[in-house]
What we know:
Elements: E1 15-19, H1 32-42, E2 47-49, H2 54-62, E3 69-74, H3 76-89, E4 92-97, H4 103-108, H5 115-124, E5 127-136, E6 141-144, E7 147-152, E8 164-168, E9 171-173, E10 178-184, E11 205-211, E12 238-240, E13 242-255, E14 258-278
Parallel strand pairs: 1-2, 1-3, 3-4, 4-14
Antiparallel strand pairs: 5-6, 5-14, 7-10, 7-13, 8-9, 8-13, 10-11, 11-12, 13-14
Domain DAGKc: 10-139
Keywords: Kinase, Transferase
Organism: Sphaerotilus montanus
Amino acid sequence: MSTPTDPGLVTSSAAVALLNPVADAGRAAELRRPVAAWLSRHAPGVSLLVPDSILEARAMLTILAPRTRVVLIGGDGTVSAMLPALLKGGLKVGLVPAGRHNLLARTLGLDELTWSQALVFALRSPTGPVDVGLLDTGETVTHFISQVRVDRAGGLGRWGTAGWSVWADDQRLPTGTARRVLLCNALPQWSTPEGLPVQLNDGQFDAVVVGGAGRWLRWLRPLRPLGLPSAAAPMPHCQGRLLRVESDRSLSLRVDGDLLAASLRVQIELLPRALDLAGSHVAILDPHRFVDTTW
C-alpha cells in the first residue's frame, strides 16, 4: 500500500504548484527544474507556476476553481502573501518548505522532509482547517499565517513604558519594562511543542511579551518551562482572538519574517478555521512516517 509520501503516480488533476523564485534570497529558484521534472514524471496533470511578482501570483490563483489544491513552494512569507487570493478563492493548500522562515512547516511537521517528500505529502494528503491572522495599522492591512513581532522603538526608562498599551481581547495587559510583543499562530523557533502550546486550529493566538532586559513578564497565567536555547524562568503567555497595541513611539512590525512600515497602533485579529491546509493538524496524519522518495 502506498503512503502519503510514496510518489508512484500522483493523480491530482485539480491541483497546481506555485514556486516563489525569490524565497530564501532566491535560492528557492534552484528547485524550478527538479520540481518540474518530478511533476512531469509523477504528477503530469499538475502545472508548475513560477510568477515574477506577488501580484502576478495572486492573479494566477484567482482564475482557479474553488477547492483546487495549490502547493506553495516557499516559506512563511510566501504563504502570507498568497493568503488574500487563497481565502477569496476557497482554495486548498499544501506546502513545500523552501523559505528563510519556515515556522509553519515546522508546526505542520514538514521541516525535516526532503522537498520531494513534502511535495508528495502536499499533493496527496487530506487537508483540514487552520486559523490565520489579519493585521491592521489603519494604513496597511495584511494577512499572516505564523507570527507577528511588535517592537516599541526607543530606549526605556527605569520605571517602565508608560507610553504604550497592550490589550488582549477586552483586557489591558501589564507591560512593565517590556518592549516587544510576540504573537504566534505557529510554533516559534525557540519553542517546542511541549513548551508554548501553539496550535494552528485552536481558534486563538498565543502571545508573549518580552522585557527590556530579555526577561519574560507575567501576563495572564504562568506556563511551564520551555525548550529555550538558554536557561529561563517559566514562560508566561496569554491567548485570545484580538490584540491591540498603541504607542507614543513608532512600532516596528515584522509579519511572517517580512518588515512592514512602522506605525503607532496595530490591531491583530484571528480568523478561525479560515484556510484548508495539509499537515499534522489533521488527526489521521503523521508526516514523519515516510518511505524513501528518492528518484
